[in-house]
Amino acid sequence: MSFEQMWRDLQPVGRSASSGGYFRQPYGAAETELRAWFTEAATARGLRVESDGLGNLVGWWDVASTGSTDVPATDAVLTGSHLDSVLDGGAYDGPLGVVSAFAAVDLMRERGVRPARPIGVAVFVEEEGSRFGLACLGSRLVAGATTWEQARELRDRDGVRFGDAVEGAGFDGTPMRLLDRVGCFVELHVEQGRWLVDRDAPVGVASGIWPHGRYRFDFTGEANHAGTTRMEDRHDPMLGYAMTALAANKQARLGGSRATFGRIEVEPNGTNAVPSRVTAWLDARSESPEALAALVDEVTRLGTERAGRDGTSLTVTPESVSGAVDFDPALAARVATDHEGGDWPLLPTQAGHDAGILATAGVPTAMIFVRNPTGISHSPDEHAELPDCLVGVSALADTLARLAG
Ligand code: GLV
Ligand code: MN
Ligand code: MN
Ligand code: MN
């Protein structure tokens, strides 16, 4: 099964006919179908599939020299990515890393590579946090960065608890024991900006991930009639939200950070009612933890001041905050150099990844990025050209062969 064939097989799964984007939320029909596809693709390659009590998957290329195909030896070389998507996401964010991993295994076999360490192709569940709000949930649970007690209480938009969704999908919530078996992790991913396009490079290597966080902003006011309530008598929480969204954008520009309100809920959400409550989620990312904290503090201060003037109130609750990630410099250098086509450039990223969770847990980690000509991601317009994807596969195969050799 070639890269192209695998890619064609995945195209229709979870794709919206109207937007062309993907809806592959954890434990839904599309994601379940993708998990079955993974199991079939791994099994067809003779990989031993290990699933855990969350739906995380690893297809193991166990090495005869380890003496056992049942229990993989320690020091495995792990690759892979995720198969879930954001709401109305692109085709590449996640699946490119999984399909490329299988294609890299095929390429290594064609080249006669006989690895001395086990190689695993991983899929982590709920990487995007698009259903339960916490990104990289599958890898966080594997790494112990989030406990089952914390995770099972997370709720989706319909109020379904994570714990119930996991059990409803036939799992028991137990993460796989992975950290002590893995010597390094290399995740291939589509680039989510224009850094490689601007430098005319098909592939690059990530140096690290910016600190980032998600914060819930609750603006509380007073519901009232949109026609009969005089403007000066209102306590309209939408105004605090609107001003805060503008302030976040301005502060991020001033500080070289990123700030986005991409999700908002309004109560009662009626055209002819002043709202009683607006809840909005801020996604903020900065180059340093200090800059991130300063950005969120300033946005909170400005929002609170505005809410006070409107006779409303603002409460800000951090839902998740991730520190800076520096990928392993020696590993990154090994991935970036010694290719037939020369060295790949190093670039920082502002996106979160399971690789960041594993790196924070102490696993030497690197990421390979494949050029995205639109620079657009988390949207149906996300793209990568086939020749660039194949350069990525080859770079990944080189890397895995060297690491496992
Ligand atoms: C995940 O893709 C994120 O960075 O939001
Ligand atoms: Mn991703
Ligand atoms: Mn993503
Ligand atoms: Mn991501």
Poorly predicted segments: none
Helix content: 25-40%
Number of domain units: 2
What is the N-to-C succession of helices and strands? HHEEEHEHHHEHEEEHEEEHEEHEHEH
Account of the protein in words:
- This protein has 405 residues and is of the alpha/beta class.
- It folds into two domains: 289 residues, Aminopeptidase (3-Layer(aba) Sandwich); 111 residues, Alpha-Beta Plaits (2-Layer Sandwich), CATH 3.30.70.
- Helix content is 34%, strand content 22%.
- It is built from twelve helices and 15 strands.
- The strands form three sheets. Strands 1, 2, 3, 4, 5, 6, 13, 14 and 15 form a nine-stranded mixed sheet that branches.
- Helix 1 packs antiparallel against helix 3 and helix 3 packs across helix 12.
- The two termini are 24 Å apart.
- The mean pLDDT is 95.
- It binds glyoxylic acid and manganese (II) ion (3 copies).
- The site of glyoxylic acid has 4 residues, from loops.
Keywords:
4-stranded antiparallel sheet; Alpha-Beta Plaits; binds glyoxylic acid; single chain; Bact_exopeptidase_dim_dom; binds manganese (II) ion; alpha/beta
